Amino acid sequence: MDADGVLDPAEVFDELGADYEAAFHGAPLVWEGLHDLLARLRPGDEVLDLGSGTGRPVAERLVEGGCAVTGLDVSTTMVELARKRVPGARFELADIRDRDFPPESFHAVGAFFAFLTLSRAETRAMLERVRQWLAPGGTLALLTVPGDIEQLVVPFLGYPLRVTSFAAEQWPELLEQAGLEVLSTRSEPFVPTGRGSADTERHLLLSARKPTG
C-alpha cells in the first residue's frame, strides 16, 4: 500500500485470485491474440507470458498448442493458481521489471494487460527488453487498455489500482521505437464479466514482430 492508501499490484491480484480469471476470460481480443500467436508458432517453441495470472486462458492454450511456456507474475496467489491449473507450463514469482533472459530466448512473448501498472518509462524499457529476448522473426502480442493516463487511480474489480497507459495512436509508434515491426492493431469494447455497462473498457490488441535482418 502506498502513501495514498492504494494497494500495490501484487496485493490487488493476491486478493482477486480466480475472480480476475472469471472477469476477463471472455475478452474477445485475448482469444484473438492467442489465435495470432498460435498461428505463428510450432510445437516446441519457447513462449514468455508476462503477467501470467492464473494461467488461463493464455498459458493453458499455448501449452495445448505444444509450446514451452514460461509465465511471470508478481502475485503469489496467481502463481500458485497457475501452477495448479496449467502444470505443463513453468511459472515464476517475479516482477517483470526485474527478471532478465538471454537474448533471443523466445519465439514469442505475450503481454496481456501486463504493462498497465508500469510507468511510461518502464513500459518503454520493457518493450526494448522484449525485442532483445525475441528470436529474429519472433512475435509480441500486446493487449492493453489505451488512454492518455499516467499513475491514475481507477476502480478495478472493486479495488483501487494505479495505472498508466498511452493513447491508442501512440502504441504503434512505441513498438516501432523499440525496434519492432507492427503487424496489426485491433480495438473493441469489453465489459468484464459480472460488471455493468458503465464499466465498459476499450481493449487494444497489437501484434508486432522482431525483424529478421
TrEMBL record:
<dbReference type="InterPro" id="IPR041698">
    <property type="entry name" value="Methyltransf_25"/>
</dbReference>
<protein>
    <submittedName>
        <fullName>Methyltransferase domain-containing protein</fullName>
    </submittedName>
</protein>
<keyword id="KW-0808">Transferase</keyword>
<dbReference type="InterPro" id="IPR029063">
    <property type="entry name" value="SAM-dependent_MTases_sf"/>
</dbReference>
<feature type="domain" description="Methyltransferase">
    <location>
        <begin position="47"/>
        <end position="138"/>
    </location>
</feature>
<dbReference type="Pfam" id="PF13649">
    <property type="entry name" value="Methyltransf_25"/>
</dbReference>
<keyword id="KW-0489">Methyltransferase</keyword>
<comment type="pathway">
    <text>Lipid metabolism.</text>
</comment>
<comment type="pathway">
    <text>Phospholipid metabolism.</text>
</comment>
<dbReference type="GO" id="GO:0032259">
    <property type="term" value="P:methylation"/>
</dbReference>
<dbReference type="GO" id="GO:0000234">
    <property type="term" value="F:phosphoethanolamine N-methyltransferase activity"/>
</dbReference>
